[in-house]
Design a protein that fits this description.
globular; single chain; 248 residues; SH3 type barrels; BirA Bifunctional Protein, domain 2; binds adenosine-5'-triphosphate; 5-stranded antiparallel sheet; 12 strands
Length: 248
Amino acid sequence: EFEQLGWALRVLENTDSTNAEALRLLSSGAPPPFVVLAETQTSGRGRRGREWVSPPAQNLYYTLALTITGGPQRLSGLSLVVGLAVMHALRQLGVERAGVKWPNDIYVDGKKIAGILLELTGDPADVCHVVIGVGINVNMIADAVEIGQAWTSMRVESGNLVDRNELARVLSRSLQHYLNRHTDEGFSGLRAEWESNNIWRGQRCCLSAGSQHIKGLVLGVDEQGALRLMVDGQESRFSGGELSLRLD
Ligand code: ATP
């Protein structure tokens, strides 16, 4: 399957994080595209250095490394498109109510089921590499782990044990489909689809950037994937990897 996609595959028992491993492979000259999968991560990461809880053998810890050419506009909306790809893979495997939260988490009924972390190396204005990390809660069940916010897993949602190899295949096909569309159409071609799956459209939310908090109504996203928020009767737009959105 991975051969069909033209993606090399590396499966590890244990690593610090699949993104960190992919970045090391890139810097030692491994040619993208390739995928790194691990059974467990000893320091799984979210954004802003936060922890991604990664118990062994239950979940999916997946990183796709790619080359991006054509300038910074090719990165516009990329993390949102990855969110759509993950959402679709989950729906295909029975998690029908999966939706996207800006900028790139996947939720089911207010609970986080998957997280995404994009990291770049090289020069975005020229040729750069991106590693796309995807953590999906697959067969993890409650009381096994302590996570600081509401979460769920594919098993909790579907009632069945999920085959992680099958998930890796379905996810890879979905990523290839959406990344190709992103290359062809840009984010603007996928914006309507993102919007119709935006779990917090029309809701009052609080956007945090470090110690700063901004309250507003979620209007949606613009053509570049920036968040559109109605703040004190005026529309504002926000983008950047350090921002975090919560229900108010
Ligand atoms: P937020 O979810 O608060 O908006 P964020 O989108 O920046 O923050 P990430 O950095 O993507 O979140 O993920 C890290 C956070 O996700 C952790 O702080 C923790 O609350 C939560 N988390 C960690 N591991 C898991 C997991 N396996 N499943 C669901 N949520 C998790």
